[in-house]
Design goal:
The structure is a single chain. By secondary structure, the protein is α/β, with parallel strands linked by helices. It folds into four domains: 162 residues, 3-Layer(aba) Sandwich (Rossmann fold), CATH 3.40.50.12160; 113 residues, 2-Layer Sandwich (Transcription Regulator spoIIAA), CATH 3.30.750; 116 residues, Transcription Regulator spoIIAA, CATH 3.30.750.200; 56 residues, OB fold (Dihydrolipoamide Acetyltransferase, E2P) (Beta Barrel), CATH 2.40.50. Helices cover 35% and strands 20% of the residues. It contains 13 helices and 19 strands. The strands form five sheets. The protein has a six-stranded parallel beta sheet with strand order 2-1-3-4-5-6, with helices on both faces. A hairpin with a 4-residue loop joins β18 and β19. The longest helix is centred in the N-terminal third of the chain and has 24 residues. The radius of gyration is 23 Å and the shape is globular. The protein starts with 11 loop residues before the first helix and ends in a 6-residue tail after the last strand. The structure holds S-adenosyl-L-homocysteine, iron/sulfur cluster and FE3-S4 cluster.
Length: 480
């Protein structure tokens, strides 16, 4: 069930949605009585952690409206797509999925709803209106919480419903949520982005930065602790500017100190940090606060100062490297992960060599590498000197090879060591193993005679694999 008792019903906007939730619940209740089963739902999520969190809100709303989660393989009565448009292939994937759901005569017709970043682009909505008639409900990121009202309209009027807001409103608290996990939870601290990196569509589809109030975040984390959650990951496109819109300075570090005091929570993570405004107060917070994990996801995008300027990233190669050194000087055992774009317009072989140089110097634990993708509406899409696909791909492969060898080398240094793992449950790689992460974000799969989900345990690493480490739990009281 969704976290119902946790809901704040005092806000007018959300209260209105609760009226629709109850109305839809009547409809699903009748259906359940006549058909002997509750109608089912399936939320399919694409994109980043922010979308994962919002898909948990979509599931929460559907649960509250009386739907049941569909069994794996079953075609649900309501299918909701939560979409991403950060790169072209993300969009193509969605069109592919939608195409597969076009019903043939006599086949089951599901209600198909689409939301997420892709829907904030008018040309996409037009294409869906014209070419995907089986899509019944279209809504955007700014009005995700109005889903109950839109579903009610669709169910009662039988017409297609299109409702995408073109500007962000205030942050709405109190949307129901059914979380996918039991040990770790996502917590949004802010929405939107003000940075306008020249390649990126996110500011156009997510609006300007809006921070949640500190009290609301603290309340949510307290409730998560009461519900047994052990780890939280704070989410924002650029968490380092949390609170700027509330007229506060150093608000992010201040928030972290408040969250560190909440009993029951063992670990705190956050993503994403923009290198241009990673403050000394944040470095101090990571060093001082016992629950803040020693891991920074710090996208550098390109190692070339010239390209970084074109990207509007507001730091140079040297400044990025100096920042990494500064953080390591203060927190020696911290691990870094990053995002890198290959083939930004005008990228020369020399520029790309600078990217490889940063990868070699920093030695990231992991890098998410992307081929530059032209996004309509962004500044970089106007640039003439786009890099040919074959050149992009060739550079991409060289970069991946280099990073993989570094990841493998780092992983091998863990063999024989004992690490602290927060146990998340059964491993996805191997059902006979449990899974979890170290404080510095290493993925560990390990054997254990008992289910220790939700506990912090000591694991002895016996073997390094390219993307994870294999180990065996050390029973409590024993030492390695
Ligand atoms: N706010 C975060 C992440 C946003 S999107 C940040 O600033 O780091 C996640 C990643 O997608 C980005 O870090 C970038 O590496 C990549 N990305 C964004 N736009 C892209 C584009 N047009 N082509 C290729 N990769 C892109
Ligand atoms: Fe996109 Fe840059 Fe904002 Fe990240 S900081 S979401 S890359 S514009
Ligand atoms: Fe994609 Fe939107 Fe996230 S474009 S990366 S789902 S903010």
């Amino acid at each position: 069930m969704a976290e119902r008792k946790a809901l704040q019903r005092n806000e007018e906007l959300i209260q209105k949605q609760y009226v629709y939730i109850d109305k839809v619940r009547e409809i699903t209740g009748e259906k359940a009585n006549t058909e002997g089963r509750r109608p089912t739902y399936d939320v399919r999520v694409f994109g980043c952690q922010m979308n994962e969190l919002e898909s948990e809100q979509l599931a929460g709303m559907l649960d509250e409206m009386g739907f049941a989660k569909a069994a794996p393989g079953e075609q649900a009565d309501v299918i909701v797509f939560d979409t991403c448009c950060v790169r072209e292939n993300a969009e193509e994937k969605i069109y592919g999925h939608l195409g597969l759901l076009k019903p043939s005569p006599g086949e089951k017709k599901s209600i198909i709803a689409i939301t997420g970043c892709m829907m904030q682009q008018p040309h996409v909505v037009e294409k869906i209106r014209k070419s995907y008639h089986h899509v019944g409900i279209v809504f955007g990121t700014h009005n995700l919480y109005t889903f109950p009202e839109l579903l009610y309209r669709h169910l009662t009027q039988g017409k297609r419903v299109f409702d995408v807001w073109d500007s962000e409103g205030q942050i709405v608290e109190g949307t129901p949520i059914t979380r996918a996990e039991k040990v770790k939870a996502w917590v949004s601290i802010m929405q939107g982005c003000n940075n306008f990196c020249s390649y990126c569509i996110v500011p156009y589809v997510r609006g300007r930065e809006r921070s949640r109030k500190k009290e609301d975040i603290v309340d949510e984390v307290k409730r998560l602790a009461e519900a047994g959650y052990k780890e939280i990951t704070l989410l924002g496109q650029n968490v380092n500017s949390y609170g700027n819109d509330l007229g506060k300075t150093d608000a992010f570090a201040d928030l972290l100190y408040a969250l560190n005091d909440i009993g029951g929570i063992e670990r705190i993570r956050f993503t994403t940090s923009h290198p241009k405004d990673l403050s000394d107060s944040l470095i101090t917070a990571i060093k001082e606060l016992p629950k803040l994990c020693e891991h920074l996801h710090l996208p550098f995008q390109s190692g070339s100062t010239r390209i970084l300027k074109e990207m509007n990233r507001k730091y140079t190669k040297e400044q990025y490297l100096a920042l990494v050194d500064r953080v390591r000087g203060s927190i020696p055992d911290i691990s870094f992960t990053t995002d890198i774009i290959v083939g930004f317009p005008g990228e020369t072989e020399e520029d790309f060599e600078d990217t490889l140089d940063v990868v070699r110097k920093v030695r990231f634990d992991q890098a998410f590498t992307f081929l530059y993708s032209k996004r309509t509406g962004t500044r970089a899409a106007e640039l003439e000197n786009q890099v040919p696909e074959d050149v992009k791909k060739e550079r991409f492969l060289r970069l991946v090879e280099l990073q993989n060898s570094i990841t493998a080398e780092i992983n091998r240094t863990y063999e024989g060591k004992t690490v602290e793992v927060l146990v998340e449950g059964i491993s996805r790689y191997n059902e006979t193993m449990y899974t979890g992460r170290t404080r510095n974000y290493k993925l560990i799969n390990f054997t254990s005679p008992e289910d220790l989900t939700g506990k912090l345990v000591q694991v002895k690493i016996i073997r390094a694999w390219p993307f994870w480490l294999e180990g065996t739990v050390i029973p409590e009281g024993e030492t390695s």
